[in-house]
Amino acid sequence: MENGEKPPQEDEQLYRIRHSLSHVLAAVVKELYPEAKLGIGPPIDNGFYYDFQFAEEFSANDLKKIQTRMRKVLGRKDAFTLKVMSPEEATDFFWARNEDFKVELIKDLAAGGETEVTIYEHDNFVDLCKGPHVNNTGDIPARAFVLDRIAGAYWRGDEKRPMLTRIYGLAFNTREELDAYIKQREEAMKRDSRKVGKELELFTASELVGRGLPLLLPKGATIRRILERFIVDEELKRGYEHVYTPVLGRKELYEISGHWEHYQESMYPPIEWEGQSYVLRPMTCPHHFEIYASKPRSYRDLPLRLAEISPMFRKEKSGELYGLIRIMGFHLADAHIFCTTDQLYDEFKAILDLINYCMKVTGLEEVCWYKASLHDDQKGKFVDNPEGWALSEKHLLDILKEQDRKYELSVGDAAFYGPKLDVQIRTVSGKEETIFTNQIDMVLAERFNLEYTDADGRKKRPLILHRSSIGCLERTIAFLIEFYAGAFPTWLAPVQVRILTISDRQIDYAKNIRDRMLQSKIRVELDIRNESLNRKIREGRLQKIPYLLIIGDKEMEAGTVTARNRDTHNQSALPVDKFIQDLAGEEKTYSLKLNCA
Amino acid sequence: MENGEKPPQEDEQLYRIRHSLSHVLAAVVKELYPEAKLGIGPPIDNGFYYDFQFAEEFSANDLKKIQTRMRKVLGRKDAFTLKVMSPEEATDFFWARNEDFKVELIKDLAAGGETEVTIYEHDNFVDLCKGPHVNNTGDIPARAFVLDRIAGAYWRGDEKRPMLTRIYGLAFNTREELDAYIKQREEAMKRDSRKVGKELELFTASELVGRGLPLLLPKGATIRRILERFIVDEELKRGYEHVYTPVLGRKELYEISGHWEHYQESMYPPIEWEGQSYVLRPMTCPHHFEIYASKPRSYRDLPLRLAEISPMFRKEKSGELYGLIRIMGFHLADAHIFCTTDQLYDEFKAILDLINYCMKVTGLEEVCWYKASLHDDQKGKFVDNPEGWALSEKHLLDILKEQDRKYELSVGDAAFYGPKLDVQIRTVSGKEETIFTNQIDMVLAERFNLEYTDADGRKKRPLILHRSSIGCLERTIAFLIEFYAGAFPTWLAPVQVRILTISDRQIDYAKNIRDRMLQSKIRVELDIRNESLNRKIREGRLQKIPYLLIIGDKEMEAGTVTARNRDTHNQSALPVDKFIQDLAGEEKTYSLKLNCA
Questions:
Q1: What predicted TM-score, i.e. pTM, was given to this entire model?
Q2: What is the helix (H) or strand (E) element at residue A223, kind and residue range?
Q3: CB B406: neighbour CB atoms within 10 A?
Q4: Residue A578: CB partners within 8 Å, gap ≥ 6?
């Protein structure tokens, strides 16, 4: 993507192809299974589906036959034609064909006030449908679709209604696009953070604890601790002051901030205790504001950069909870910078420097970019402060242009109180997600009556920058799991080294090496089981440990280890101290490559 | 205290002295202020008080006069005599004396079914009173009491009733004990964690955030981070596996654990969301149990030591909330060890080794001891497992006896599910508090159906040890604040070094030294203000910074610093690198003394 360019518009023709394919699917099903009743069949993100109620048993094995027939009929170039009927006509029409579900849909349309319904016909197959479609089935590239899988789906999503069989198809403009999608999906499934998280024992879930409340197992907790210490130390070095504030706050705090009014649908219900209402906080801002307000501030105190690994909770529908990505409660590497207008440019630039550094160190820069949201002239949507907007947006754009990083612009999507800059990621499944957001805030200092005494003795309001650096730890861990498919660089790997003995003779030597490594704070494990070396290597590879150290009699005599590199599969014999030193160096420099063997 | 000995019984005679003094006080007040009406006057922990309704203005300046008169009348050896009256007689008696409050008390006694009330008389002063008292006022050591202060107190604690004047007195057996108490109290007030916490900007509170939800300011947060990293690293070194689990859990989880039934009064009301009840957890156990249960366990996996810096919430009455000591939510250095019976001795010993180490490193060993609680033969109070009790209590006592530390025993105070070992502290105000508790648990594995496959292939239940190492971080910080009066050893000090320039000529040199120190991860501040050196030193001392580095022309030329030791006030000139090296050594060895100057 070029700097400042919008992502491409949705492909209108592809939409028509997918929609038409669902009709072709339904026509073939009705041809092969005349007793089947039709549900609905829309186009979706990667293709289409259609829901059927089959009279007989239907299995995924039957898809091949349908697909072959579909390919065949596409060659006939049957035209799609639109007809308009009154609801009564349409009811009679589908009633005569025994299509109860369609009749129900028409009834609802009529009840909703529709006096006409549209149907599309091709090859004698007629469906209640709003369109649009391709002109004729010859416009559908026959090799660019496949029937994908079947699933159960309640009619109208209601578990009290009949369970239908949903047939999913994938469809693209070309065979190459289809193949690329299938390959990417396979890759994404292999890298799925829930799957890898389970295989590598990074995290688990418990129905009793609650959905969306994951438990980080020792190895996942190690990654969180590494990330947390990394970012806290880095922020301290860059002049942030870290604080700890509670995950609860009184409702009044969020009434003042405006969250209670505008953000309540994302907040869990309050806990009532001794006449007070306490809420699990959805944001840290008001807590940091209370710290700012805990003593008088002078211009000499600014910029004040309060940071926290901040626990917070935001409402998610239980159906949308997912692994470490969508959860009820999480920890954000959060900060609020209080500064003067004069300091805005430098402070915002420093934020971007830090984010860039975090992207580089984690490796995520490969899949991340910025999205700047500016204001426009919609009345009431943005705070009335033309001078403030002009200055802050100019700074924001100047800083972005100086960057050697791609970014996009979104005019009219700013926050009410100022422009914002999102950090976007393209996930392994190809979806775009916002990792976190940074905002310039010209409003909340007023609401919380935050001020500082300027050099001229006058009270002034600070600007507030809301920012993160490495995002929410849980989500970032999930993105890292997917990005690396669990094969983390040395500095992030929960286990960096596993020592494998060839026979029991090397056990003492192996323990001795392990202890030397522990002294150097290397995260090391021992595999001294009475198993074959091949099995030990295979299991170590499945655990995606950066280095397997193989210890036989030869190594023991020479005082060396044979180190096996996870990524290159290289094996090198080298002195123990040399390996320890190299590994420490690799960790300290946040190397993304494994270079020690 | 000797090992195994109970603390001394309450002093019965002192109780009588204090009670009698409240009568003497009231008698003198009535003599000097005949219009004053009597409230109540009990003995208390450190003396006594009496509540009065004065007709005129009364101030603390009037106490001296009363005290002088009290000392004088004590010499007269007036006897205390007991009389019994019917409620009607007593009502008439006090009514005649215009003592409305007494009349009200008698009315309530009568309403409660009392047919007799007792009064005590001395020196023509008569009070409604249950006693006991000394024989005569000559038994009261006249120099061992003082009138202390006055305060407002609503009659019967009810804010809708009249506000009375409460006069507090301190009273002990001897003048020496009184003086010692006053001195200790002054010291305790100087060291009060709220006062020091404010002076050193360690933490703050906000009515809007909520009472009992303190905010750790950057310097307090630094101490927490130091403690947290210290204990996590130490525990990892000792074979613990750290995890992160959520502060919420479903109510059902705590129903299974039994907390909901037995501990509900300490839990905040649940949050209802999508038909589930989520509670802020009061304990971590069930979360760790769910991790244990997340995969099959074998005897080879034991002991499994799951640890966490665990956020949790326990109900406190808002009136009892205090600084960092009594708060709504806190973070416990928590762990649960799952082990076999054979491993119990070694595991419990290792727990004590770790606690001893923590006490030594923090310096708190000076004021801490152990208290072991064993079971007795009360039916139903303790789980029925004679063999389990015998073994676990024997191990516990054997381990305690091997220790070079004092401990006491408390028979009959075990937990339902096993013996426990509390870590006790004597606070600066002389009060005994439990820092945290360690328990052997023979029950909960059964409740959560936790098991492991033993070497013989059979399923067995693990024993569970609940333990902490350094307690709840917030409370431990408060104890440390009080213990050190804010003058922390180098490794705990939020700011270790402040560099003071004598004039502007040294600013660059000072910044250069600061940067070198930051490289060595020293927590350093700069004071390059245009203020006198004396003022800079004074302010640095008030902040209790371990080392003030004074930089003048002489030091600049010689490439040295003059380091001023906070505790000894020694000043030594030494090369910058030498100072940095010494300080790093002092930190690394957790020295409690400042040795670098």
A1: 0.87
A2: helix A218-237
A3: 16
A4: none
Best mutation target, B201, B234, B237, B245, to test chain A (most A CBs within 10 A) = B245
Average pLDDT of span B155-164 = 92
pLDDT for position B547: 98
In which residue are the tokens 């009659």 written? B155
Residue A48: pLDDT band (50, 70, 90) is: very high
Nearest to A85 by CA among A56, A44, A122, A114: A114
| Beta-carbon separation of A209 and B253 below 8 A | yes
Cα A184 to Cα A181: distance, rounded to the nearest angstrom? 5
CB B373 within 8 A of CB B326: no
Q: Which amino acid is at B154?
A: Y
Average pLDDT score over residue span A253-262:
91
Q: What is the ipTM of this complex?
A: 0.87
pLDDT recorded at residue B10: 54
Average pLDDT, stretch A256-277?
Answer: 91
pLDDT digits (tens, 9 = 90+) for A225-234: 999 999 999 9
Selected residue of A194, A245, A253 to mutate for chain B interface (largest B Cβ count, 10 A) = A245
Neighbours of B531 (CB within 10 A): 13
| Residues paired with A170 in a beta bridge | A47, A146
Please give the helix or strand (H or E) that residue B550 lies within, else none. strand B547-551
Q: Where are the alpha helices (DSSP H) in B238-385?
A: 251-257, 259-262, 285-292, 344-362
Tokens for A66, please give them. Answer: 């349908």
Residues B368-393: tens digit of each pLDDT: 999 999 999 988 889 999 999 999 99
Contact call for residues B278 and B248 (beta carbons, < 8 A): yes
A17-44 pLDDT per residue, tens = 999 999 999 999 999 999 999 999 999 9
* Gap between the Cα atoms of B190 and B7, Å rounded: 27
- Per-residue pLDDT for A3 more than 80? no
What are the tokens at B552? 């003048």
Burial per residue of B177-209, b for 16 or more beta-carbon CB atoms within 10 angstroms, e otherwise: ebeebeeebeebeebbbbbbbbebebbbbbebb
**Contact B242/A221, CB-based, under 8 Å?**
yes
Nearest CA in chain A to B304: A218
> pLDDT tens digits, residue range B460-473?
999 999 999 999 99
Q: Are B517 and B549 in contact, with CB atoms under 8 Å apart?
A: no
Amino acid occupying residue A276: Q
Closest by Cα among A447, A417, A433 to A371: A433
CB contact under 8 A, A318 and B274: yes
- Alpha carbon of A249: minimum distance to chain B alpha carbons (Å): 5
- Identity of residue B159: E
Contacts of B256 in chain A (CB under 8 A): 208
Please judge whether B247 and A242 are an interchain contact, meaning their C-beta atoms are less than 8 angstroms apart: no
Under 8 Å between Cβ of A500 and A541: no
Residue B89, beta-bridge partner list: none
Positive or negative torsion for Cα A110, A112, A116, A117: negative
Domains and CATH numbers, chain A: 12-188 (3.30.980.10), 198-242+284-483 (3.30.930.10), 246-280 (no CATH), 497-588 (3.40.50.800)
Residue of B nearest to A237 (CA): B518
Where does the pLDDT of residue B201 fall: very low under 50, low under 70, confident under 90, or very high at 90 and above? Answer: very high
Query: Taking Cα atoms as reference points, which of A25, A108, A34, A104 lies closest to residue A69?
Result: A25
Give the integer Cα–Cα distance in Å for A124 and A144.
Answer: 24
CA distance A70 to A254: 58
